[in-house]
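We both want to read discrete structure tokens more fluently, so let's practise on a single case. Would you write everything just below, so we can both look at the same thing?
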Amino acid sequence: MCAAFIGAIAYLGPKAGRDVFHIGGETADLVFGAVTVLTGVFGTLAGGVLLDKLGATMSNALLICAGGMALG
């Protein structure tokens, strides 16, 4: 289910940028890609720091992952 959601966002994100904000196709793709990279780096670092503070167990990792997906 999670992969389907990410796939839908990857397809519809730039399309929504083109249709809603009336920006060019290449610009929408670049902006969406940049946002994806920046949030991926930030999320990875923040999740690692949070897991270090909570204790590096599988249950804590899954809890952080589920919370991040719910927030997203």
Remarks:
- Residues 65 and 71 are 10 Å apart (CA to CA).
- The chain is about 90% helix and 0% strand.
- Helices lie at 2-21, 25-54, 58-71.
